[in-house]
Amino acid sequence: MLTLNVLRNNNLAISSAERDVLEKSIERTRTLRSGQLAVRQGVEVEVSLLLVDGLMTRHIDTPDGQRHLVGLHVPGDFVDLHAYVLKKLDHDVAALTEVRVAVFPHETLEAIQASNVRLTRRLWFVTLLDAARERQWIYRLASLNASQRVAHFLCEMNARLLAINASDGHIYMLPMTQNEIGEVCSLTNVHVSRVLRQLRESNLCNVRGSRVQILDLGALVSYASFDPAYLFLNAETAARAVAT
Amino acid sequence: MLTLNVLRNNNLAISSAERDVLEKSIERTRTLRSGQLAVRQGVEVEVSLLLVDGLMTRHIDTPDGQRHLVGLHVPGDFVDLHAYVLKKLDHDVAALTEVRVAVFPHETLEAIQASNVRLTRRLWFVTLLDAARERQWIYRLASLNASQRVAHFLCEMNARLLAINASDGHIYMLPMTQNEIGEVCSLTNVHVSRVLRQLRESNLCNVRGSRVQILDLGALVSYASFDPAYLFLNAETAARAVAT
DNA sequence: CGCTAGCTTGATCTCACTCAATAGCAGTGG
DNA sequence: CCACTGCTATTGAGTGAGATCAAGCTAGCG
Q1: Any residues with CB less than 8 A from the CB of B115 and at least 6 apart, and which?
Q2: Which residues contact A192 (CB under 8 A, 6 or more apart)?
Q3: Which chain B residues are closer than 8 Å to A39 by Cβ?
Q4: Quick check: B190 CB within 7 A of strand D?
Q5: For residue B96, which of B50, B56, B68, B69 has the smallest C-alpha distance?
Q6: Per-residue pLDDT tens for B55-91?
Q7: How far does the CA of residue A151 sit from the closest CA of chain B (Å)?
Q8: Is A136 contained in some domain?
């Protein structure tokens, strides 16, 4: 009963009975070291992974060896549930930090789909939640400037970590290098450094190493035009994600 | 039996029996005029729409009145099937041209989900196909320069229109203004104009008004780093999408 | 102690934006 | 028939945000 504790305090409307069903579907847990690839683009897979601890990325490699993040996962997220349906993914999945994942064989997911309409809908829902976040990432790249993008990303992570009690609303740990933040926001590490200084000097937030401290959440949210609707949080969490 | 003819020649592995089931789920068809909003962000909906004819957009409005496309739909696409699961969307859906859509009440989709596991999986699949395209749009914005982005977009549309026999592999109609292409690629209309000229002068493709003529598909694909894997086309269509 | 990875800061450059002017074309009405 | 309006596309000139290149700096760690 311990593995899926992370699903207890989140915003998914999953009942404890359903959590038990999922818990029973876990074949085993795995640990991946930082940087390790979990799923490679184009390779057929037969299991899906739920992230229990750490951070994982979805990223697309470019021909010139760069990579770009198209998703970032926190504990409680299925990192590749869409592989249950797509079978082959259009992107890589990798561990950003050392992580622990729960392994769900697709056979057991098929059993759930055949027997439990409501839980199936919840699983479908979380795959579409990923999609909603991806759309917002498009918006972020298309409409915001460098510092707004970083601010928006920091707001998103704050909101998502709030939902799993990994942020107190103002301070959270984000074990990412400035280079990796750049891979999210499509900026060079050099410019991320400048942007973080600017956000610090504007008294919006203070990012030092892995520690993110939001100094003025309301101002940061407004600066980044952050609206957490796309995260489908419960009302209380959504409120905390935008103001004190 | 006419409405869903568009599903006949595409890449979805939907049997004719399943197409019949879908056909019977159509409550009615609607016509929307160019520019008309079909779904507004945040408003609960009870039907989903399948695009039968014309082009539709998914877009996010910015606070300053700009809009950015996060998706573009061609005939045969469900434009908001994800609303069946999410209930409220995180973005708007609008008609780009005059369009005809088939209306699927969510009740009938629920009936399908309760009774037809395989078809449900196909529906889930197409919602995830949208997500795969959205990820590629992130990649496009993050990794490609202006002319590569436009080239990539033109390759994508060629591939998708090939799948529904609306492109012969080199020439297709794309009723979009340069401003709208800019909303896809995050460029100003002025720069889109320059980019199209550049692509024309490089003998890659010739875009005039609504007519797109690809002069050298192999070169265009290579220039844009276009790999159609994310579209999950059948092998034959995928091959035609990248070369003669 | 030296090595390496990550961060910081400065100088320069460039791609795409902004502003602005012009042309083409369709529709509309006198 | 032409004049007028509005939308779309084109082209030029100037500007700026963020990239690139390069040099130090800091801190953890064998």
Answers
A1: none
A2: A150, A178, A179, A181, A182, A185
A3: none
A4: yes
A5: B56
A6: 999 999 988 888 899 999 999 999 999 999 999 999 9
A7: 16
A8: no
Q: Say if residue B68 is in the same domain as residue B154.
A: no
DSSP strand pairing (A171-173 vs B211-214): unpaired
* B227 plus B148 within the same structural domain: yes
A225 to B62: CB separation less than 8 angstroms, yes or no:
yes
A176 vs A129: CA distance, rounded Å: 23
Same domain, B173 and B98: no
The set of residues, in sequence order, having a beta carbon less than 8 Å from that of B49 and lying 6+ positions away, is B30, B38, B39, B78, B79, B80, B93, B101, B102, B103, B104
Long-range contact list for A116-124, CB < 8 A, 24+ apart?
A116/A18, A116/A21, A117/B113, A117/B114, A118/A18, A119/A14, A119/A18, A119/A21, A119/A22, A120/B113, A120/B120, A121/B85, A121/B113, A122/A12, A122/A13, A122/A14, A122/A18, A123/A78, A123/A81, A123/A84, A124/B85, A124/B124, A124/B127
Residue of A nearest to B135 (CA): A70
pTM: 0.94
Detail the DSSP E strand segments found in chain B: 28-32, 37-39, 47-53, 56-61, 67-73, 92-95, 99-105, 171-173, 205-208, 211-214
Amino acid found at B160 = R
- Number of domains observed in the structure of chain A: 2
- A176 & A233 share domain: yes
What is the 3-state composition of chain A as percent helix, strand, coil, each rounded to the nearest 5? 45, 20, 30
Kindly state the tokens that stand for B28.
């009615």
Smallest CA–CA distance, residue B120 to chain A, in Å, is: 9
Mean pLDDT by runs of 10 across the 244 residues of chain A is 64 82 93 95 96 96 88 96 97 96 96 94 96 97 97 98 94 96 97 97 94 96 96 94 84
Q: What distance separates the 2 farthest-apart alpha carbons in chain B?
A: 55
Chain B residues whose CB is inside 8 A of the A82 CB are 128, 131
Residues A81, A167: one domain?
no
Partners of residue B172 on adjacent β-strands: B167, B212
pLDDT tens-place string over residues A200-242: 999 999 999 899 999 999 999 999 999 999 999 999 999 999 9
Q: Are residues A149 and A230 in the same domain?
A: yes
Domain hosting residue B218, numbered range: 144-241
- Is A141 in contact with A43 (CB distance < 8 Å)? no
Q: A160-185 burial, b if ≥16 CB within 10 A, otherwise e?
A: bbbbbebbebbebebebebebbbbbb
